[in-house]
Design goal:
- By secondary structure, the chain is mainly α.
- It has a single domain, classed as Up-down Bundle (Four Helix Bundle (Hemerythrin (Met), subunit A)).
- The chain contains 5 helices and no strands.
- It has helices at about 5-10, 15-40, 45-60, 65-80, 90-105.
- It is elongated, with a radius of gyration of 14 Å.
C-alpha cells in the first residue's frame, strides 16, 4: 500500500511534484520489472542487481515496504552472482508492484 503521507513529507506537499513522481513510477517501474525478469532469465546478475536496486529505491519513496523487501532479496542474491534461489520472489515482487500501480493509477 502506497504511503502517501511519506511521499508528501519527502516532497514538501507539492502536489505537482508528487503527481509527477507518481506518474514517473507508474511509467518506469513496469519497464524495470520487464528488464529484471529478462536479466534473471538470461543470468545477467550484475544488471539484475542494479535493476532490483532501482526498483527498491523508487518504491521506498512510496513506503512500499513489501516491494522494498522483495527487491532487496533479489538485489543481494543477484549481486552475489548466483541464481536467484527462490523463483517465487520475482512473482511476489511483480504482484506487489502491480497492486501499487493500480493504487497509483486511481490517484492520477
Amino acid at each position: 500500500m502506497v504511503k502517501f503521507k511519506k511521499l508528501n513529507d519527502l516532497l514538501g506537499n507539492n502536489e505537482k511534484v508528487i503527481n509527477r513522481f507518481l506518474a514517473l513510477y507508474y511509467e518506469k517501474v513496469p519497464e524495470l520489472m520487464v528488464q529484471l525478469k529478462d536479466q534473471l532469465v538470461n543470468k545477467q546478475y550484475p544488471k539484475a542487481s542494479i535493476t532490483a536496486h532501482e526498483i527498491k529505491n523508487q518504491s521506498a519513496y512510496l513506503g512500499l515496504e513489501e516491494v522494498v523487501k522483495l527487491a532487496s532479496i533479489i538485489e543481494v542474491q543477484a549481486e552475489s552472482g548466483k541464481d536467484v534461489q527462490d523463483k517465487s520472489i520475482y512473482i511476489q515482487l511483480l504482484q506487489k508492484v502491480n497492486e501499487a500501480l493500480i493504487e497509483i493509477k486511481n490517484t492520477l
